Amino acid sequence: MIESITIADVATYDDTGVRIGDLKKTNFIYGANGTGKTTITKLLNEEALPEFSKCSVAWRAGIQLETLVYNKDFRERNFGKGKIDGVFTLGEATKEEKEAIELMVTQLKEIKAEGIQKKDTLEKLNAEKQQAEDDFREVAWVGVYKKYETVFKDAFVRVMKKESFKDKLVNEAGANTLDLKNFEELKTKAATIFGKAPVELPLIKEIEYARLLEIEIDDIWAKKIIGKSDIEIAKLIQHLSINDWVNEGRGYLQDNDVCPFCQEETITENFRNQLNSYFDKAFEEDTQLVKELFSEYTLSSQTLVNLLDAIKSKEKENPDSKIDLDLLGAQIKTITAQLRANEQLVENKSKEPSRSFTLTSLTEQLSGLSKLIEEANTKLKAHNKIVDNYATEKSDLIASIWRFLVEESRVSITQHTSNIAGRLNGIKAVKKELSCSSHILNSIQKSKRQTRTLLAFSLPLMKSIGR
């Protein structure tokens, strides 16, 4: 049966139109001429016409029944526009035809009853499906969104409503196949990428110290630089261990015969020659090497110390520093102190060539500092790579976050999708049954129309139809 009729924007009905609802098996619609009664019969008879595009007829259980309409159009199609007088008969039905019609009527009632039952089942399945969606939406919102909202908020920008977040989580479960990353890794990367767009950071200048280490291990520091031992004066100088004292005093010798030590005229030409022979060319070359290495070591160490101090100051002022500042400060302090100690030894060697010692090597300390800087630069390069590929890195991070969230919710997602799939299969099956019932119903109605014979009906004489 018809449950409601909506009719608008046709004939005497305006755009707002009317809705006739709460219909029963038998209904009477009456009104003055021109109020739209015939328009309703035309809608029931030919709903598919373009003029009824804003009209609709709602059938119970969605099953459309055969519609028989007797109106002016029917009369004109079947009897012409002339007058119809008296009583007339159109054909007779046989006993078999009547029985066939009665059987079809019974079948129609049964199919309609089944249709109503199936529609109720369909409504129940749809309700269960909606309840499952509602339940999982709350699970996803409270258990996932709220839990990770603070850390991963930027990954939720486009899904900050319950329904869209729930749909996103389900879709990602079926499509996201990225490698799974742990929470701490994602959290660290999110702190860099999300929020304020990162800027490129300069690398820490690498330290150069190879030449310092070469000077430290030079054999000259352990060598006792003294004069020739086969000179007459050598025995006395070496016996008294005054090699450095005599060598320094040579610089005070004048062209006269006055001794720079006792200030007496004791300097003879022979004495001069012996001194010159004692401090020979080999001695001069070794002492010159000491002076050169002393100068180079002092300059290199000071340059290194200045560079390390600059690095420390810059990193302390850098809010984005990637280096361990406490460890950096401790290592620089140790290296600076050792360099100063070595500088003092080298300086003493330049004054007293006969000294013999070994410089403390800074290989371990400088290597450790270099490694510390290298590790910081590795982090800076990774940061700068993110800057260079910010859009891609952000997109990849968001995808990885959703992969993590899906794995966190794997059990509830699987259960939800299974529940929905079951309901959808049931809905599909019921709809298919309804479609088959509708097809059978239409076939029976068609057979009924073909079998039914209009037995007889009378039409009273009327001066005007519809009065």
Using brief descriptors, characterize the structure shown:
5 strands, mainly alpha, two-stranded antiparallel sheet, 3-stranded antiparallel sheet, disordered C terminus, 467 residues, single chain
Describe it.
By secondary structure, the chain is mainly alpha-helical. Among the domains are: 2-106, no CATH class; 210-387, no CATH class. Helix content is 60%, strand content 4%. The protein is built from 14 helices and 5 strands. It has helices spanning 37-45, 72-79, 95-152, 162-175, 183-193, 210-216, 234-240, 243-249, 269-278, 281-317, 325-351, 363-388, 390-408, 410-451, and strands at residues 2-7, 18-20, 56-59, 87-88, 457-458. The chain has a 3-stranded antiparallel beta sheet, covered by helices on one side. The protein starts with a strand and ends in a 9-residue tail after the last strand. 15% of the residues are buried. Residues 86-93 and 453-467 have low confidence and may be disordered.
